[in-house]
Specification:
The chain is built from nine helices and two strands, in the order ααβααααβααα. It is mainly alpha-helical. The protein has one domain. It has a two-stranded parallel ribbon with strand order 1-2.
Length: about 160
């Protein structure tokens, strides 16, 4: 971890020299390092404060920083006790379509057991199939009369 700590410091320093800002905090970067993309070890995040906790979980689970409306939502809840806040964030992450589609597992979670099994595996596949962009691409491949019929029914 010392190597990754140094890498972050160097990159963040270089960005500051150019007048830019590194996208997220060092604690978020270090929590994500060396983690399998489908397994999130929650024990690596438990010591973070509420703000850094949700930022780090978002980066690891969604591979992106929270959007402005997500930041506003979680900042409104940052005053909750640490355990309650972390449980709410993890429940939100565990119930997301991204976690279902990518079959991400929250391991060593002290707050609840993530639902697993064949039913949830198929629910993840179903989430993937109902993705609008995926359906749109599929619809474009259908014959023109069928496309017109679908437009009449759904539009």
């Amino acid at each position: 971890m010392e190597v990754y700590n140094s890498i972050y410091d160097i990159v963040a320093g270089n960005m500051e020299e150019k007048g830019e800002h590194f996208g997220y905090q060092k604690s978020t970067f270090l929590c994500d390092v060396g983690m399998h993309p489908q397994s999130i070890d929650i024990t690596r995040f438990l010591e973070l404060d509420n703000h850094h906790f949700y930022e780090a979980i978002y980066v690891v689970a969604y591979r992106r920083l929270p959007e402005k409306k997500e930041i506003a939502f979680w900042e409104g809840k940052e005053m909750l006790p640490k355990e309650q806040f972390q449980k709410e964030v993890l429940k939100n992450i565990a119930g997301s379509s991204v976690v279902a589609i990518n079959q991400i597992k929250l391991i060593n979670n002290p707050y609840f057991s993530q639902k697993i099994g064949l039913k949830y595996h198929f629910m993840g596949i179903l989430y993937g199939l109902t993705d609008k962009s995926c359906l749109r691409e599929f619809g474009k491949k259908l014959p023109q009369p069928i496309q017109k019929l679908i437009r009449k029914v759904f539009l």
